[in-house]
Specification:
six-stranded mixed β-sheet, globular, alpha+beta, 4 helices, about 25% helix
Length: about 170
């Protein structure tokens, strides 16, 4: 499995600030097993998109997966529309960092992370905050939903305008 954080921990100063010794928590940052596991799964999703590997995405996503973008929260994007959009414009490169996992019982996990990508235009390059909901189904973790927010001006990758139906 891939390590959850791409960046090496920031080295401690030679002389601790304030004249105090750094605590053990400050001295090293080691991802938890769950952060390492889910960081690897997030990397698997991103690699499948980069390779345009629909079969790999089929193994990682639930059928009812959807994307909710902070810019259009009332317009969820279906798995089919999201998958078509991200596979049509895969990233040239990406980086996942800051993986944080909150277990919800034994069969669900909320995973937040920073995602950075470089993509050929017209797809959005930039930084994004993702929160993914993973569910354990028949012993395998599968991605159920992605909540995404751009970190800056770039639109969320995979967000596709949805038809608007008039309410009666």
């Amino acid at each position: 499995m891939a390590v959850a954080a791409e960046r090496a921990p920031t080295p401690l100063p030679a002389v601790p600030t304030g004249g105090r010794e750094p605590s053990e928590a400050q001295a090293s940052i080691t991802p938890t097993r769950t952060a390492t596991l889910f960081g690897g799964l997030e990397r698997d999703v991103a690699e499948a998109i980069k390779r345009r590997d629909a079969a790999a995405l089929d193994r990682l996503l639930l059928d009812d997966f959807d994307l909710l973008a902070s810019s259009h929260p009332e317009e969820p994007v279906s798995r089919e529309d999201w998958q078509d959009a991200v596979l049509a414009a895969p990233p040239k490169s990406f980086r996942i960092s800051g993986v944080s996992v909150h277990m919800v019982g034994e069969s669900a996990a909320a995973v937040s992370f920073l995602y950075e990508q470089q993509v050929k235009a017209p797809a959005p390059s930039g930084r994004f905050m993702f929160v993914d909901l993973w569910s354990r189904v028949q012993g395998r973790w599968r991605l159920q939903a992605r909540f995404a927010s751009p970190s800056g001006d770039a639109p969320v990758p995979g967000w596709v305008a949805q038809p608007v139906f008039e309410k009666r």
